[in-house]
Amino acid sequence: SDYDRQVRYDLAHGLQINAILLGVPDFYGDGDSIQGLNEPIFFDGTDDPALGKAINPANPWARFVYETVNRYKPGGELATLADLPPGAGIRVWEVWNEPDLDDFWRGGPRDYARLLKVAYITVKQADPQAQVMFGGLLYPTQRNFMASVLNLFANDPQADDFNWYFDIAAVHSYADPWRSGWLVLYVRQTM
Asked: Side-chain half-sphere of 133: how many Cα atoms within 13 Å?
């Protein structure tokens, strides 16, 4: 109810929301990752979307993403319950926060690549007009986390069909304007 109230108030005041899909309940934890993350996205045992396909209940991340997008998208469950204006809802979904920082994500690039792929395909299944954002990157070390993830996608036969599983890339720079510009350039060069 707290999230519903916050989203409803923000949308009622004309704000556009970049919602971050983040967090794992303890009972779905699997070491540094998420239980069932490598299970197929869809109930038919594939990661191939199609109109009306059911989400695989054995993949809790896919279920969470699908239910969340359906709740908060324009015309979704909250829009109906709260009588929101037509077109009001969340259309940008960021997948995790600072996945290159161990304080937020300890699963490494391989599990993040899967997390992003599952989220992208699931978000688009729920709302084809939504955009998916690669989790905002901090670049706290010399390691190029995004390059590691993109290198994994380079061998994924579905990557080209699904825009390499993201529509937007974000970076976080908190105090240094020069670093902000450098990070944007660095991410562009990485892509």
From this structure: 21
Low-confidence ranges of the chain (pLDDT < 70): none
What proportions of the chain, in percent to the nearest 5, are helix, strand and coil? Answer: 40, 15, 45
Q: In angstroms, rounded to a whole number, what is the distance separating the alpha carbons of residues 110 and 153?
A: 10
d(CA 113, CA 80): 34
Whether this prediction's pTM lies above 0.70 is answered by yes
Of 13, 9, 61, nearest to 37 (Cα)? 61
Sorted by sequence, the CB contacts under 8 Å of residue 60 that are 6+ apart come out as 28, 34, 35, 36
Closest to 93 (Cα-Cα) out of 58, 48, 127? 127
Amino acid 12: pLDDT: 87
The answer to whether the CB of 11 falls within 8 A of the CB of 88 is: yes
Cα(117)–Cα(153) distance, integer angstroms:
9
Please give the Cα distance from 33 to 26 (Å, whole number). Answer: 11
The residue assigned the tokens 């993830």 is 149
3-state secondary structure of 173: coil
Cα 163 to Cα 33: distance, rounded to the nearest angstrom: 24
